[in-house]
Structure formats: structure tokens, C-alpha cells
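Predict fold of MBL fold metallo-hydrolase; 209 aa.
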Amino acid sequence: MLFETIVVGPLGVNCFILGDKQSNEGIVVDPGADCEMILAAIAQFGLKVKYIVNTHGHFDHIGCNRILKEKTGAQLLAHEEDVPFLVNAGRSARKYGLTVEDSPQPDAFLVDGMKLEFGRRELEVLHTPGHTQGGCCLYLANEKLVITGDTLFADSVGRTDLPGGDHGQLVDSIRTKLMPLPDDTVVWPGHGPSSTIGQERRSNPYLNE
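Predicted 3D structure, encoded as C-alpha cells:
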């Protein structure tokens, strides 16, 4: 399987490109900014993008939704709870002195347990509210990896002081949806370096309070 990370935008978002090499079908996760760079990578890998997936609706993760959707014809997927963030991304970004284009409405909504197929690969949606109410993680069991957005980071967790945030709910989401995964599952967060479920179970201070 193809798995590529591109760090985009001023807030350093990890945009992920996943592809099934046999079918050339792919998924782009959290295309936050630097649209031309993401499109160049898609072209380089020869991928037909089937889905654009937002782990949550914050402006730094969704800035290229419209351009990628127009250029690739892919379906845009996000959780229904986070649609207000998507469609008001520009206004949110301006509070931080940044410019972001509002996202189109999703073509379909992510729901807990949903399976997204691309070629021979299958990704499972895990709804993990707390950072936002629509926050989701994306688990690929056969590849032993989970994309956690801003839910879980290496030795940290997502902030919960923004609208829709709830620290207790976030920690509960992590404990019930992510910690049961195998220890050697690689955690790929929305910002910063990767980790593993086992490492976070042992050392993440927010999970051992």
C-alpha cells in the first residue's frame, strides 16, 4: 500500500495520501493547505482519488477540500456534527490572521463503524468526539495503522478549549476506541510525529492521570 505524509500549511498539518497500488485508487485525508503540492503528489503516484476525508472540520485541515474535489472528482466525507466548521472555515481562519476557503458540503457523512474501500484496502471510521463533536479516526487493521487527526498525538491529546471541545469526552473516546487497538498499531496524528498505541498506553500523561 502507498502511504505518504505531506506537512501542509502554517500550522503544520499532516495530510495523508493512501493508495492501493494494484487498482491505483486512493484517499486523501485532511488536505489542509498547499493544494498544488498535494495535487502534484497525487499525479506523481498516478492515483485516482476516490475519497477526500476530513478527520474533523477545523480550518487548518480542510482548506483544499474544494480544489481537490473539483480537480479529482472525489467524494468529500466528513462527520455531520462538523459541517458548521467546514462551511465557516474562512471566518474561523481570519481570527488567526489566516486565509482559508470555505469547504463545500460533504457528499456523505462519516459514521462510526463505516468502512471505506479503495481497491483491495479497507479503512474503518472510528467516531472519537472530544476535540470536536464530529472528530473521527481512520483505522486500517491490515496495515496496522490509525490516522488520529487531532484526537491523539504522540504523548499528548487534542485541545478541548475550542467550540465543541470536551476533555473528559476526548479521553473517553481515546480509551474506548483507540486503546483497544493492538500495541504495534502505528498512530499517525494530525500534527507532529508518529507513535504507537502501545507507547501511548504506557506513557501518554493525559491517559494516565
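The CA atoms of residues 181 and 197 lie 7 Å apart.
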